[in-house]
Amino acid sequence: xxxxxxxxxxxxxxxxxxxxxxxxxxxxxxxxxxxxxxxxxxxxxxxxxxxxxxxxxxxxxxxxxxxxxxxxxxxxxxxxxxxxxxxxxxxxxxxxxxxxxxxxxxxxxxxxxxxxxxxxxx
Length: 122
What we know:
The chain is an alpha/beta fold. It has one domain (9-120): Response regulator (Rossmann fold), CATH 3.40.50. Helix content is 39%, strand content 20%. The protein has a five-stranded parallel beta sheet, with helices on both faces. The protein starts with 8 loop residues before the first strand and ends with a helix.
């Protein structure tokens, strides 16, 4: 597939180094990627160059994913967000229902599934 379009800019907000490495290896040929391991780093990266899609882990060391999603919505209300979480509880999902998001994936998920969610977003 020889696609001459500019690849989608995806900001992965994930604090687990092993997952960031997996995302980078798997999606390198497909997306222009940026990574953040905390909410503060994510907001700084967002300000540098707003992404086309955000992949947001709900548990971060310095903030709750719901609070960070609210901040992202204030900055850029229309950016597609794919939410990821390791927790099976429906409570976080219910908390984000009032905020727009493109997909909600529970870890562990297949990277092809994440790629499909990113591709469908926006």
